[in-house]
Write a structure and sequence with these properties.
This protein has helices at about 25-30, 45-50, 50-55, 75-90, 105, 120-130, 150-160, 185-195, 205-215, 225-230, 235-245, 250-270, 270-285, 295-300, 305-320; strands spanning about 1-5, 5, 10-15, 35-45, 65-70, 95-100, 135-145, 165-175, 200, 220-225. By secondary structure, it is an alpha/beta fold. The strands form 2 sheets. Strands 3-10-9-8-7-6-5-4 form an 8-stranded parallel β-sheet. Strands 1-2 form a two-stranded antiparallel sheet.
């Protein structure tokens, strides 16, 4: 698969997730075999106004490449300049524009899924960004504000006309959030209407789900979000399954070593105090369904140091082996 001139070695993308797809988590998922990782949403206006907090979101390392940096905003000038800043920093292989976030504070700015109501503004923004950068340019959509998908199809056609190189679609409406069922028929419909690559997203909880989505919709690749939070190996498992028809399930030993790896990376990047707060919820994702996971989750609520976390992981591992 190619996005513009960028060859993608695999069919798996880590979805951009606010508060989740930070540098340590992206590095972990990349180590577990993901083809393309995506940043958290980055405010184009924050880059435009030189916000230190916003620039922190662009922290990257070469070993996570190819990295897709996702921008959000609604002002054509700041979107174009923000995209140019990202390109000039040489941190991204792909720049993506968010057309799918339905969080109220984003929608109030006229950004995210609010743009799907504004085809004229969308055209202006995409034209400005395309003119500003040479990097591959993608957009991520939802189905729109009603279930028909017509808004998604309209925006997709505009995007293709303005030089966008690929489109990811999560076929849920603005009001659905993550509830209900993603309508994969809209992915199939979009693939039939445009010639640029289509990346399918939504309700991929297992390796088999990914294969089924590709078979039913003919999408070029899949994007996985929440399932990767509890199983970062799922992306490489999907690629293995699509290529060979089989995949390896990680052993408990691999899972616990991955938890230790994430702990080390979080502490190194965020500092011990902040990392402990974040890991109280994140580490419990990896052991969901294991015997004693509820008690382990309770113990995580009191973690206060890296060594405390590592001791709890080893204690939990010893109890189930």
């Amino acid at each position: 698969m190619k996005i513009k001139n960028l060859k993608i070695l695999g069919k798996t993308f880590l979805a951009p997730l606010a508060g989740i797809t930070n540098l340590p988590f992206r590095l972990l998922v990349k180590e577990c075999g993901c083809a393309v990782v995506c940043s958290e949403m980055v405010s184009a206006k924050g880059l435009f106004y030189n916000s230190e907090k916003t620039f922190t979101l662009l922290s990257s390392k070469k070993k996570e490449q190819p990295l897709c940096v996702q921008l959000f905003g609604s002002d054509p000038d700041s979107m174009a300049k923000g995209a140019k800043i990202v390109q000039d920093l040489n941190v991204a292989s792909i720049i993506d524009i968010n057309f799918g976030c339905s969080v109220k504070k984003v929608v109030k700015q006229g950004a995210g899924i609010a743009l799907m109501k504004e085809p004229t503004l969308t055209k202006i923004i995409l034209k400005a960004v395309r003119k500003a950068i040479d990097l591959p340019l993608t957009i991520k959509l939802r189905s729109g504000w009603d279930p028909s998908g017509q808004q998604a199809f309209k925006i997709a056609h505009i995007a293709q006309e303005e030089g966008v190189d690929a489109i990811a679609i999560h076929p849920r409406t603005a009001n659905q959030g993550f509830k209900g069922q993603a309508n994969w028929d809209l992915i199939k419909g979009l693939k039939q209407q445009i010639t640029i690559p289509v990346i399918g997203n939504g309700d991929i909880n297992t390796v088999e789900d990914a294969q089924k989505m590709i078979e039913l919709t003919s999408c070029d690749a899949v994007m996985v979000g929440r399932a990767a939070m509890k199983n970062p190996f799922i992306l490489s498992q999907i690629d293995d399954f699509l290529e060979t028809g089989s995949y390896q399930t990680p052993s408990n030993f691999e899972i616990f070593r991955t938890m230790e790896r994430l702990t080390q990376m979080y502490v190194g990047y965020f500092g011990e105090k902040t990392a402990c707060k974040m890991l109280r919820s994140r580490l419990s994702w990896f052991v969901k369904g294991m015997p004693g996971c509820a008690a382990f989750r309770t113990k995580l609520s009191g973690i206060h140091s890296k060594n405390h976390i590592l001791d709890l992981i080893n204690e939990f591992e010893a109890g189930i082996t």
